[in-house]
Amino acid sequence: MTGTGNAREAMVARLRGAGITNSRVLAAMGEVPRERFVRPELAGDAYGDHPLDIGRGQTISAPWIVAFSVVALEQPPTARVLEIGTGSGYAAAVLSRCVGEVVTVERDPTLAARAREVLAELAPNVEVRTGDGMRGAPDRAPFDGIVVTALAPGEIPPDLLDQLAPGGTIVCPVGDQRVGTLVRYRDGRTEELADVSFVPLVPGSPEA
Ligand code: SAH
After folding, report:
1. 193 occurs within a structural domain
2. What pTM was computed for the model?
3. Is residue 203 part of a domain?
4. What angle do CA 124, 129, 133 make, to 5 degrees?
5. Which end of the chain lies in a sparser environment, N or C, as judged by fewer CB atoms within 10 Å?
6. Mutation pick for ligand 1 pocket among 73, 84, 128 (CB with most ligand atoms within 8 Å)
7. Which residues form the domain of 134?
8. So where does this one cross the membrane (predicted)?
């Protein structure tokens, strides 16, 4: 096995040790080459248990929070899922191996273009959109699951609630100043899942 293959297997073993048991999610994390989603000079550190800088002031989330969020969505293999905050595209790639179809929205055009390129190669069932994810993707709604990977200020963005299919699930970090709570919304009820730290969700149009 290659060095990155070993590092990836070791990451999956640590996720198991940290309580992730969903075999589909573990298989996906064991397949997606995380080093392709980080800056080349950080590739040697791609499988560490921490977020990494991806440029443009943003980060790729730590492996555990990616796994935990996808597990928390509890979607079947046929589901249509919306992700807000494409970033590197890594979480979208993992998600794409667990569900039928992924639409992911990124505010930063540079990050969106980069993610679109790598995902076209590694995850053909992902559509990357550039725009304000707080508005969702109304023309593609409803979604069985919606996962937000940036901290929503105060509450789940109302437009996302409107774009959820009946019985669907939203997983979203809510809080301010980078720290908050990962919440799960379903059938009108909100459940707190974990204390988390995320970059903020920034409202408004994309900036070039
Ligand atoms: N899921 C990513 C990590 C996301 S970091 C990964 O796997 O790499 C959060 C991302 O949300 C950043 O790239 C940031 O630019 C983006 N973001 C912030 N506000 C946004 C908004 N309103 N709409 C869409 N994306 C947004």
Report:
1. yes
2. 0.97
3. no
4. 130
5. C
6. 84
7. 3-197
8. none
